[in-house]
Amino acid sequence: MRNFTTVLKIAPAFLLASAMVHAQTSDTATKEKKIEEVVLIGYGKQKKTDLTGSISSITSKDFNAGASTADQLIIGKTPGVQITGNSGAPGAGSTIRVRGGSSFINNDPLIVIDGVPIDFNSLSGATNPLSLINPNDIETFDILKDASSAAIYGNRASNGVILITTKKGTTGKFKVNFNTNFSVSTKMGNVDVLTADQFRSFVDAYGTAAQKSYLGNADTNWQDQIYQQAWGTDNNVAFSGGVKGLPYRVSLGYNEQNGIVKTNEFRRTSLGLNFSPKFFDNHLTINGNFKGTFSENRFPDGGAIGASIYFDPTQPVYSGNSNYGGYYEWLDPANTATGLNVNGTKNPLGLLYSKRDLSSVFRIIPSLQLDYKFHFLPDLRLNLNGSYDYAKSDGSVNVSKDFAQGIGTLGSYRSYSQEIKSKLFESYLNYVKKIQAINTTVDVIGGYSYQDTNTITPEAPTYYGNGRKTDFSTPGDTRRTLVSFYARGIFTIADRYVINGSVRRDGSSTFWNGNRDNVWGNFPAVSVAWKVNEESFLRDISTINSLKVRAGWGKTGQQETGTFYPAFGSYSYSNSSTAQYQFGNNFYTLLRPDVYNPNLVWETTTTKNLGLDFAIFNNRISGSFDYFDKKSENLISKVPTWAGDLSNFNVKNVGIIANKGFEVNLNIVPVRKDNITWGVNLNATRFNPKVTSLSQYVDESYKIVAGSISGINNYIQAITVGQPLNAFYVYQQVYDNNGKPLEGIYVDRNGDGKSTEDDKYFYKSPNPDVILGFSTKVSVKKWEFSTALRAVLGNYVYNNSASNSSIANIQANNFLSNTNVSVLNTQFATTQLFSDMFIEDASFLRMDNFSIAYNVGEFMGKGTNLRVNAMAQNVFVITKYKGIDPEVFGGVDNGFYQRPKVYSVGFNFQF
Question: pTM for the full model?
Answer without folding.
Answer: 0.89
